[in-house]
Amino acid sequence: MKVEFIEALEEIEKSKGISKEILIDAIEAALISGYKKNFGSSQNVEVKIDEETGEVNVYGKKQVVEEVENDVLQISLHEARQYKKSYEAGDYVLIEVTPKNFGRIAAQTAKQVVMQKIKEAEREIVFNEFSNRESEIVTARIQRVTKNNVLVNLGKCEGVLPPTEQITSENYQQGNRIKAYILEVKKTTKGPQITLSRTHPGLVKRLFELEVPEIHQGIVGIFNISREAGSRTKIAVYSNDENVDAVGACVGYKGARVRAIVDELNNEKIDIVTWDKNPEVFIANSLSPAKVLKVKVKENQKSALVIVPDYQLSLAIGKEGQNARLAAKLTNWKIDIKSESQAQEELDDFDNTVEIVNENLEFVEKEGINDEKEENTY
Q1: Runs of H (alpha helix) within the chain
Q2: Rg, the chain, Cα only
Q3: Distances (CA, A) of 339 to 291, 329, 336, 348
Q4: Residue 240 lies in a domain
Q5: Domain end position, chosen among 77, 97, 129
Q6: Is the same domain home to 111 and 167?
Q7: Beta carbons of 1 and 110 less than 8 angstroms apart
Q8: Helix 20-39 / helix 102-131 crossing angle, nearest 10 deg
Q9: Does residue 190 sit in the same domain as residue 204?
Q10: Closest Cα to residue 287, out of 332, 351, 337?
Q11: Torsion over CA of 174, 178, 181 and 183, rounded to 10 degrees?
């Protein structure tokens, strides 16, 4: 190797951010393995690269001893002092053993090591970039679909949208652009593995942050999101400014803001409701678009009984129970929904039961009947 090689290492240091010293150390370590592999040496060796000239030398490393027992690993004190008079027992002597044709091996090894280090550095850079972007949104182009996985081009690397993170109603075709949520970034031997999602509630949150400036500015906050991807989402919001309507800000003028999000999610329905610290109010809001007459809560059980008008019962429950299910996830309360007539029937049954019990008690008192049992003799 020559001066040009050292200059090349310095250029790599500038362009790729890989220290020249790290590269040289890695090349020296690889050359030691290459030397032992090609020349079958069992001795301890060191390889040194001159950082000025690029010259490579191999040295056998031997310990100075009074009496030699292994001439491959040891050297006598008398012989060592022929190299340098100051050597003492226990010191190590480096004796040059560079083979004549070692330059070719060194050049090939150096090239392989440098290429490997460049790949590792690039992978590390990509990993650090994307690991700091977990829970963010990326816009990417679909590169190909294979084994049900959707692979997207993220520029310096690929991201994968696995089947579990895909919306079943969506059609993913090569060349299409999609927005996806960065779910997880893992470091693997083949480089960073970036898992994306189209089903995670975080995707909806990030889309609202992009479309609603008040959320980005902190004026409007998102309390919680419950989602059944591809079908329906409920999002609870609140305002930190009494002059700003949280729901109105999210909906936008003539629904423009929420419409942009609905379009991105391929017409997934979105219910935007107001969060309230009063659980009765929040639970009533969460069942939107249904109108609620009354909410009774049991704080210790985190359960609530919701009474709605008869004609609103099916709307409150939703198709296959979806509206009630999403409301329960949004509020983290167990919700039991009853129509007004059902609630009245239960109340009438309760009143009738109380009336019968009272009549029986009156009869018992009047006839003087007691509930003491007679003793039986066998």
Answers
A1: 3-16, 20-39, 77-83, 102-131, 201-211, 213-217, 246-251, 256-264, 279-286, 313-317, 322-331, 340-367
A2: 38
A3: 11, 21, 10, 14
A4: yes
A5: 129
A6: no
A7: yes
A8: 130
A9: no
A10: 337
A11: 0
Higher-pLDDT residue of 155 and 181 is 181
Please work out, in degrees rounded to the nearest 5, the angle formed at the alpha carbon of residue 157 by the alpha carbons of 151 and 163. Answer: 25
- pLDDT of residue 240 exceeding 90, the answer is yes
Rounded distance, CA 325 to CA 319, Å? 10
Residue 206, helix vs strand vs coil: helix
CATH, residue 180:
2.40.50.140
Give dist(CA 51, CA 134) in Å, integer: 41
The CB-side HSE value for 365 (13 A sphere, CA atoms) comes to 6
Q: Is residue 376 part of a domain?
A: no
| Three-state SS letters, 74-125 | EEEHHHHHHHCCCCCCCCEEEEECCCCCHHHHHHHHHHHHHHHHHHHHHHHH
- How many whole angstroms separate alpha carbon 269 and alpha carbon 229? 10
What residue numbers bound the domain in which 162 lies? 140-197
CA 159/CA 161 separation, integer angstroms: 7
Q: What is the pLDDT of residues 123-178, one digit of tens each?
A: 888 888 888 889 999 999 999 998 889 999 988 788 999 999 999 889 999 999 99
Boundary residue ending a domain (224, 258, 275): 275
What is the model's pLDDT at position 332?
95
Are 108 and 2 spatial neighbours (Cβ–Cβ below 8 Å)? no
Neighbouring-strand partners of residue 167: none
Q: d(Cα 106, Cα 86) in Å, to the nearest integer?
A: 33
Residues 92 and 125 in one domain: yes
Q: Which residue has 């167990």 as its token pair?
A: 334
Domain count, the chain: 4
Question: Does position 18 have pLDDT exceeding 80, yes or no?
Answer: no
List, for residues 324-338, the tens digit of each pLDDT value: 999 999 999 999 999
Residue type for position 351: D
Q: What is the DSSP letter of 162?
A: -
